[in-house]
């Protein structure tokens, strides 16, 4: 609380400060309403393009931020009161080297890419990002300059085409103004923009219309001011998207000859999006289909005590999700599994930003945090989930935010209150602070369903009240940066709508890096060294871990990166007395250390690969002893042509103790995609996992608990047609097979077929 009072005291002073980032080179987007109807074909034949604002794209901003690019790139912008039109003419001296294939949305990175970044409020807080590859495949996202993050979960309704020419390629974009939040003030509006070209050859160049400097962490703050949109009508667009979802699922027990048991389900759902004004949006959903159409990326969880994070993909929650973002992840909507209905209101009025959402959930899934591990728990019955956010930006360099979340069910509730502030002291210095407080009541039955630390964390016979805070200071120069960050969470702090798997936990982190850039690169472009130190304890101050990490990174031709890293870590093992949450006197301390190598290269236009290898002595959590661990991750992506793409990722982890095997775990994730065009694809996904254990090398008692061999195979065949984010058609088949010590051959125990159709009417 003291840190927040200190920042509040600075508010009057901050209002007097001159903005750190002066606005110069003010441009104006012309309004063109006469002429033939615009046809997006990549030709730039319409006369409107000759009258459009022309913006050269020639500043090198990465890897060097000095000089101008040798390739010609020109941008064109105009609007007609309803739509913002953008074109980029990108020349290339060797068009045969252009990297492009038909891609699914947000999968274009690694190709040649051009695009627009637009800060519609001109307040250096957020920017829409629209990117296109030479074949018209799209990517969009929202960059949050306050939190320093980007969210590709946002999918807007906009159009783009691309055409490869003898001189290079051209891209045209049509961005409806109704998808943009912007001020409702009458007359000319002042915004900020940047046109960008990514040119991947021996190294990837970032070429910009603005002289972006890497010594300033805030790229949004360095975009070019622009005026326009005086004739833009206040948006009252209404999008109604009904959907039909149907499917059949079959299951059967592994250890018997019982036949398949079938169940089917057909649902009709409705999503509504209403642009009340240009800066206020209402979303509602009834009986939504929140199923995951596409399988999440597979991960090995062996010897990992904490819950894995999976990103949100569902449209209702991804719409304006950044309005609920804070430095701590207090709103992670993957916690909401099966809502019947939901509503959301988001908006921005001058310096004020707000968001509100409310949903029910037929399930009540909880993340039970800890300091040595976390668990997922399930309550019976449904739950209610709410979040309310508000932020105020008195100027471009200072923001204050608040957030309230609540989850409740029968005999259960969790309420979280948060206050945060972000202050750009200068172009090189940023200070952020956040305080959180919570009150939680668990039902008495929950602790009896859990074991170990999770049972003790939920065994309270009264409400739990806890606090936490986070302080972060960052200093950045052209060639180096340094940071110091401190976080603290009380023993009784919970954030059940978010994703914070640690509690009864505090950590001090200090780190920095230095980069040498080679102005005349022959084989190598830059060399970087990094060092980070972490000290982690429980809330009482008892050591959990202390660690030093060091890295050296060398970047060179063919987009190659070579990294060598090492770590030394002192950490505690599992609790000796599992009926106590104490750390001091209740754990043993172990010293882990290891080396790793990472190599990435794109030896030719259509092939990219990376390899990660680690050799380390780490704690075997199952047997509570130091063991030798080897870890290998290999990834290959290959585009056979503009339509066929293959991605293969293999993870191998092996642990040995006293020269004998403890376990070997392998995971292979193969995805083969035929991309018909930018709207449709057919994909085969195969995920294979195999774990083998030498139970003779385990501590007594585990032989009757663990399987000596486990295998699993998940397969999915999916056809997708997506005209826009809410006009989609999916049809697919998936199954799952298992093998273990009781089932000695790989046997399918689940299979399903599904279909979804939704159509969006824009009124």
From TrEMBL:
Coiled coil: none annotated. Gene3D superfamilies: 2.60.40.1190. Keywords: Signal. It comes from the Bacteria. The keyword Signal applies. The keyword Signal applies. Residues 1-22 form the signal peptide. InterPro entries: DUF5916. CDD domains: CBM9_like_2 (cd09618). Residues 259-338 form the DUF5916 domain. It comes from Alkalimonas delamerensis. This is DUF5916 domain-containing protein. It holds the Pfam family DUF5916.
């Amino acid at each position: 609380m003291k840190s927040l009072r200190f920042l509040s005291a600075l508010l009057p002073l901050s209002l007097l400060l001159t903005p750190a980032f002066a606005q110069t080179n003010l441009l104006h987007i012309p309004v063109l309403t006469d002429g033939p109807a615009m046809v997006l074909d990549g030709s730039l034949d319409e006369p409107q393009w000759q009258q459009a604002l022309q913006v050269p794209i020639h500043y090198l901003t990465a890897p060097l931020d000095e000089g101008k690019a040798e390739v010609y790139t020109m941008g064109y912008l105009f609007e007609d009161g309803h739509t913002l039109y953008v074109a980029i003419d990108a020349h290339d001296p060797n068009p045969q080297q252009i990297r492009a294939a038909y891609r699914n949305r947000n999968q274009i990175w690694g190709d040649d890419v051009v695009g627009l970044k637009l800060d519609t409020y001109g307040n250096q807080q957020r920017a829409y990002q629209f990117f296109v590859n030479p074949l018209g495949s799209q990517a969009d996202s929202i960059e949050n300059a306050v939190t320093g993050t980007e969210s590709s979960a946002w999918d807007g309704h906009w159009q783009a085409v691309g055409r490869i020419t003898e001189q290079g390629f051209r891209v045209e974009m049509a961005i409806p103004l109704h998808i943009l939040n912007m001020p409702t003030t009458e007359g000319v509006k002042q915004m900020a923009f940047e046109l960008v070209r990514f040119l991947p050859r021996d190294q990837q160049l970032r070429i910009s219309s603005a002289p972006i400097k890497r010594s300033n962490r805030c790229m949004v703050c360095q975009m070019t001011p622009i005026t326009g949109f005086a004739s833009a009508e206040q948006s009252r667009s209404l999008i109604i998207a009904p959907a039909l979802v149907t499917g059949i699922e079959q299951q059967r027990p592994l250890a018997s000859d019982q036949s398949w048991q079938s169940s089917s389900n057909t649902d009709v759902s409705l999503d509504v999006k209403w642009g009340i004004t240009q800066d206020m949006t209402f979303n509602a959903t009834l009986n939504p289909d929140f199923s995951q159409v596409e399988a999440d990326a597979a991960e090995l969880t062996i010897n990992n005590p904490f819950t894995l994070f999976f990103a949100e993909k569902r449209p209702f929650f991804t719409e304006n999700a950044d309005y609920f973002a804070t430095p701590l992840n207090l709103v992670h909507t993957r916690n909401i599994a099966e809502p019947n209905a939901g509503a959301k209101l988001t908006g921005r009025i001058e310096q004020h930003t707000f968001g509100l959402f409310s949903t029910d959930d037929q399930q009540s899934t909880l993340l039970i945090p800890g300091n040595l591990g976390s668990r997922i728990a399930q309550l019976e019955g449904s739950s209610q989930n709410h979040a309310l956010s508000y932020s105020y930006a008195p100027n471009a360099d200072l923001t204050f935010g608040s957030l309230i979340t609540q989850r409740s069910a029968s005999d259960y509730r969790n309420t979280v209150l948060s206050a945060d502030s972000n202050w750009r002291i200068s172009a090189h210095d940023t200070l952020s602070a956040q305080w959180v407080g919570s009150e939680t009541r668990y039902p008495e039955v929950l602790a009896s369903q859990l074991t170990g630390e999770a049972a003790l964390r939920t065994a309270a016979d009264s409400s739990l009240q806890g606090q936490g805070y986070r302080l972060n200071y960052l200093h950045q120069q052209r060639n180096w940066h340094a940071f110091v960050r401190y976080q603290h969470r009380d023993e009784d702090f919970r954030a059940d709508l978010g994703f914070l798997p640690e509690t009864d936990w505090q950590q001090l982190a200090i780190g920095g890096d230095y980069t040498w850039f080679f102005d005349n690169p022959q084989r190598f472009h830059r060399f970087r060294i990094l060092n980070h130190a972490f000290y982690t304890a429980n809330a009482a101050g008892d050591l959990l871990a202390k660690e030093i990490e060091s890295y050296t990174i060398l970047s060179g031709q063919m987009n190659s990166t070579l990294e060598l890293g090492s770590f030394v870590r002192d950490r505690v093992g599992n609790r000796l007395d599992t009926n106590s949450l104490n750390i001091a006197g209740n754990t043993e301390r172990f010293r882990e250390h290891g080396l790793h190598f990472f190599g990435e290269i794109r030896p030719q236009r259509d092939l990219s690969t990376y390899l990660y290898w680690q050799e380390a002595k780490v704690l075997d959590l199952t047997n509570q002893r130091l063991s030798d661990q080897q870890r290998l991750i290999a990834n290959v992506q290959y585009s056979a042509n503009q339509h066929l793409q293959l991605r293969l990722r293999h993870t191998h982890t092996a642990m040995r103790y006293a020269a004998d095997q403890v376990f070997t775990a392998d995971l292979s994730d193969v995805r083969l995609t035929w991309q018909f065009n930018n709207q449709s694809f057919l994909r085969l996904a195969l995920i294979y996992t195999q774990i083998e254990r030498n139970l003779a090398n385990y501590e007594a008692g585990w032989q009757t608990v663990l399987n000596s061999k486990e295998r699993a195979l998940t397969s999915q065949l999916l056809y997708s047609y997506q005209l826009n984010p809410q006009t989609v058609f999916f049809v697919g088949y998936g199954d799952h097979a298992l093998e273990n010590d009781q089932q000695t051959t790989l046997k399918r125990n689940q299979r399903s077929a599904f279909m979804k159709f939704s159509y969006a009417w824009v009124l």
